[in-house]
Amino acid sequence: MTTNACLENPKLAVLHQLLASATNDASVAMCRWTSGLISLTLDEVREIPLPEVCPTLGIGDELLTMVVLTIDKELGGVMILAFDEVNARQLAAALLNCPVSDSPQWSELEQSALTETGNILGCAYMNAISRLINQELVPSAPYFIQDYGASVLQQALIAQAITSDKAVVCRTGFHRHGVDLNWHILFVPNETLRVAMENAMPWQSEPPEAPALKPEVNLCNHTT
Amino acid sequence: MVLAAIGEQKNVGMGEIVVAQAPVRLAAVLGSCVGVAMYSPRLRLGGLAHVVLPRANGAVANPGKFADTAVPHLLGLMERKGAVRSELIIKIAGGACMFGKGGPLQIGDANAEVVKEVLQQAGLRIAGQDTGGTQGRRVELDCGTGELHIDCVGMPRKTL
Q1: C-beta atoms surrounding B146 within 10 Å
Q2: What is the sign of the dihedral through the CA atoms of A98, A104, A110 and A114?
Q3: For residue range B122-156, what is the model confidence (pLDDT) as tens digits?
Q4: Count of CB contacts below 8 A, A vs B?
Q5: In angstroms, what separates the C-alpha of A48 from chain B's closest C-alpha?
Q6: 10 Å Cβ neighbour count for B133?
Q7: Which domains does chain B have, with CATH numbers?
Q8: Which of B65, B104, B153 is the closest to A148 by Cβ?
Q9: pLDDT in tens, A163-211
Q10: Contact, B152 vs B102, CB < 8 A?
Q11: Angle at A131 between CA B99 and CA A223, to 5 degrees
Q12: Which of B15, B103, B135 sits opposite A70 (nearest CB)?
C-alpha cells in the first residue's frame, strides 16, 4: 500500500506529498462544482511493473466511461477520470438537475457535464502541480471516451513504458458524504514530469505562485 | 444459447508473452498495443504476445514489450514446445489510435506495421488481422481451436 511503499521509497514519498496537495486542490474545486456533495482523497501512489498495472488497479475488460486530459509538452502525462456507467449517469443527472437517463446513448449535454467535471478537476490538479514544481503544465481539452478501462490506461502508460518496465500511477478516490464512490482519477506522468515532481523540494511554507490555468469548457447551467 | 467455454483463462499483461495448450484461453485487452497470436493446430498449442512499443533499439530485459523482439521470442517459445514454423497460424489485433489522432504518443499504427514487418522477415504469413481504428479491443485466443475472438465496445464479436 501507499504508506509502506512511500516509507521504502523516498521519491514516492515526495510524489505522494505533492500529489496529495494537488488532490486537495481538486477536491476543493469538486466540492464547489457539486455544491459540497463530492470530495476527493489520494488513495495511492505506486510504482508497478507494467504487466501488473491493470490487474493491480483492478482495471480490466469492464466498460468504463472516462474523461481524459493529456499534457502533451515535454512535461507530459495523462489524467483519466473513470466511472462505471451507473455512477457516470448519476453524476451527469445530478449536474444537469434531471432524472438519470436510461438511453443507451449519451446525449451531448450529458457528455458535456462529464467533460466539464474532468476539466474542472484537471485544471485544479494541474494548477497545483504547476505551482509546486514551479513549471507550467498545459492540459488538452478533455475528451469523453467509453471503452475498456485497460485499453485507455495502457495508452496512458506508453510514455513511461518507453524508458522503464515499471510505471508510477497515482489513484484518487471520490466520496459522497464520506461514502466511497466507484469513481477514480488515474494520473500517469511521463518520465520528465515524474522526475520534476520527485525533485520538487519539500515545501515548508507557501509554494511559489504559477499562472492559473482556466477551464476550457463551460457548462451552460453551471451555477456555483 | 451459447455455453461458455470450459477451461482456464490466462490474462496476458503489457509486455508479456504466454504460451499454453488447450483448453486454456489467452486473453488481453489492447489499445495501441498489438496482440500477436501464434497457433499450432497439431499440438493445440497457442501463444500470445502483448506488444507495447515498435522497436527495442538495443538489448532489453523484457522482449515481450517490443514488436521486433516479441515476435522472435514468441516463435522461439512455440518451437521449444515442439511447434514447427510452417504449421503456425498467425493472427494479429490491436494497434488502435486511442486518444484520437491529436493525442500524445500515437504508436498504434507503428506497432502494427513493425509486427507485420517482423513477421514477414521471419517468413510467417498472417492468416487474419484486425488492426487500427480508435477503440480498444479485448482479444481471446482459444488454444483448443486457434480462434482469435475480438470484442470491441458497441460492436458484434469478430472471430479470426
Answers
A1: 21
A2: positive
A3: 999 999 999 999 899 999 999 999 999 999 988 89
A4: 98
A5: 12
A6: 15
A7: 2-159 (3.30.1330.200)
A8: B153
A9: 888 888 888 888 887 788 888 888 888 888 988 888 876 554 444 444 4
A10: no
A11: 70
A12: B103
